[in-house]
Design a protein that fits this description.
Blueprint (H helix, E strand, L loop, with lengths): L1 H14 L1 H15 L6 H24 L4 H25 L3 H15 L5 H16 L2 H10 L16 H8 L1 H11 L2 H26 L9 H12 L12 H47 L3 E5 L3 H12 L4 E5 L2 H9 L4 E3 L5 H4 L7 E6 L4 H14 L5 E4 L6 H7 L3 E3 L1 H14 L1 H13 L3 E7 L21 E8 L9 E4 L2 E5 L12 E7 H13 L3
Parallel strand pairs: 1-2, 1-4, 2-3, 4-5, 5-6
Antiparallel strand pairs: 7-11, 8-10, 8-11, 9-10
């Protein structure tokens, strides 16, 4: 009967999308640091902890009013209990335990083992109950039993709950725990010296020093001395005691130096990892950005241009030195293999404007293009072919645009030699004047531009110059066209050319004018 009930519940919950969605929501809220509402929840819980401790401190000298009593006993405690139960719930999935046993028993043609299932469920839950943070959570709930006044002291344990919600403190503790062996060894040595120092001072000073009444006083003096605090409430009066004091002070300075160096080395080892974790978090939050694969000289130039124009981008490379160099230049860069699934899941490719593959190796560029195109086929990709012979291979791998830096450079040189003055003017405009730019204006369906003649568009009023139009279909009455990727570019078109849906206007002018023109003719509803 119990077995049938467990199987029924497990199957029902396993088929319930609402249950899965609810559990996933609470897991993200309580455990997933990258979840957008996690910080809000953490801030709320920190407020609840601190306010409850304030109530305890206020209660020491004052009588709690009705409001504070209800707030502390019912509101705060209820929230802590709900949080404790939710954490206990999401710690593991009982459905899997039941369904795995059902699958195994069916396969082996044996009876469903109810005792085994119940034991595994209880064991998993007990694993959470005995964890340090769960114990702290439980101790934070106990003060609700105010009849036992001694339990009120456990309210101070609520302060330890703050550790759960403060990532910076957790990171510090995780760094310190990496040097657990060294710190424990040092603490054992300190404890041994404190004990020896206390024993020696007790032998020499007991009966002669009026401030040392027992061995505990001697241990207290030894600890205060080796920590270099020196309250002065107990001072040695014998020659032997003063010599011992000097040795303990020197040992204390040495121990403090050793401890500082241990913690500093731990931070140095984890500094890069912490930086990468921060970058991963930032990358997960990016909206409308460029994903650049590979850090090279071309990447550096592109990144500097993006940074100048305040475009959002992230650089991904497997070379740690290159990533460090990129970070030092102020770029958002992540050391990772972009072909790995867990890294790809960091990015929402719906928010990626372009994937740019800019390594110096065409083999790597081809492989990256193929991998990323298979994962995000709808995202546009720009890649470089360092060798012109590899252009077609990279294009077949999935790149929308393939550029050859050498060929582009040769074209620029040719243009400069043939028209040096015009070349200098154009490069000066784009390099030094961020207000001027070339932009594409697409003719959208039902926009003001659709089915309009070129002559009807008031470009001069917006101080814009029309370079040309890119059309899908070739016009018979206009012969001066250039074919570009199965489309046709019309340079300086006549005023009687009609604009159709999907056409693209290429204009040059002030960026503010272009933005205003787009608003009036493209974005603004008719």
């Amino acid at each position: 009967m119990i077995a049938k009930f467990l199987i029924f519940i497990a199957r029902y919950l396993n088929s319930s999308e609402r249950y899965k969605k609810t559990k996933r929501f609470f897991y993200n809220l309580l455990e997933n640091n990258s979840y957008k509402y996690k910080k809000v929840f953490d801030s709320f819980m920190i407020f609840m902890v601190l306010s409850s401790v304030f109530v305890l401190l206020y209660d020491v000298k004052n009588q709690l009013g009705k409001f504070l009593y209800i707030y502390d006993v019912y509101v705060v405690t209820t929230i802590f209990i709900i949080e404790y139960l939710l954490r206990l719930w999401i710690y593991n999935d009982n459905r899997e335990i039941i369904l795995n046993e059902l699958e195994e028993s069916t396969f082996l043609n044996r009876k469903f083992n109810t005792k085994k299932v119940c034991f595994e469920i209880l064991k998993k839950k007990f694993d959470y109950i005995k964890s340090p943070f769960a114990i702290i959570d439980l101790l934070a709930i106990l003060p609700v039993f105010r009849a036992f006044r001694i339990l009120r002291i456990f309210m101070l344990f609520r302060l330890f709950k703050v550790l759960r919600y403060t990532q910076s403190i957790n990171k510090f503790l995780s760094i310190v725990t990496t040097k657990k062996f060294e710190i424990l060894t040092l603490l054992m040595l300190v404890g041994f010296i404190v004990f020896i120092g206390g024993a020696i001072i007790y032998v020499f000073e007991y009966g002669k020093n009026p401030n040392i009444h027992n061995f505990f006083d001697a241990l207290y003096w030894s600890l205060v001395t080796i920590s270099t605090v020196g309250f002065g409430d107990i001072s040695p009066v014998t020659y032997q005691g003063r010599v011992l004091t000097m040795f303990l002070i020197l040992a204390g300075v040495a121990f403090i130096s050793f401890t500082t160096s241990i913690i500093a080395s731990a931070f140095e080892e984890r500094l890069q990892e912490m930086k990468l974790n921060r970058i991963e978090t930032e990358a997960h939050k990016l909206k409308e950005f460029y994903l650049i694969c590979g850090y090279s000289k071309i990447t550096e130039l592109v990144a500097e241009n993006f940074k100048k124009n305040r475009e959002k981008f992230i650089i991904v490379d497997t070379d740690e030195e290159k990533i460090l160099e990129a970070n030092n230049k102020g770029f958002l860069a992540l050391k990772a293999d972009i072909t790995k699934k867990d890294i790809l899941e960091l990015f929402d490719f719906k928010n990626v404007k372009y994937i740019m593959i800019l390594t110096n190796n065409d083999i790597i560029n081809t492989f990256l293009t193929l991998s990323l195109h298979s994962y995000a086929p709808r995202t546009k990709m720009i890649a470089i072919a360092n060798d012109e012979r590899n252009r077609e291979k990279i294009k077949k791998a999935g790149a929308n645009i393939v550029l050859n830096p050498t060929k582009a450079f040769s074209l620029l040189v040719r243009e400069y030699i043939g028209n040096p003055v015009s070349f200098e003017v154009i490069t000066t405009i784009f390099e030094n004047n961020t207000k001027t730019g070339v932009d594409e204006i697409e003719v959208l369906e039902n926009s003001y531009l659709e089915n309009k003649f070129i002559g009807e568009i008031e470009l001069k009023n917006y101080k814009l110059i029309l370079i040309g139009i890119v059309k899908t279909n070739k016009s018979e009455h206009y012969s001066h066209t250039i074919e570009v990727k199965n489309k046709y570019f019309y340079f300086n078109p006549d005023s009687d050319v009609i604009l159709e849906k999907g056409d693209v206007l290429l204009v040059i002018g002030d960026n503010r004018s272009i933005k205003y023109f787009k608003y009036n003719y493209v974005e603004k509803p008719i």
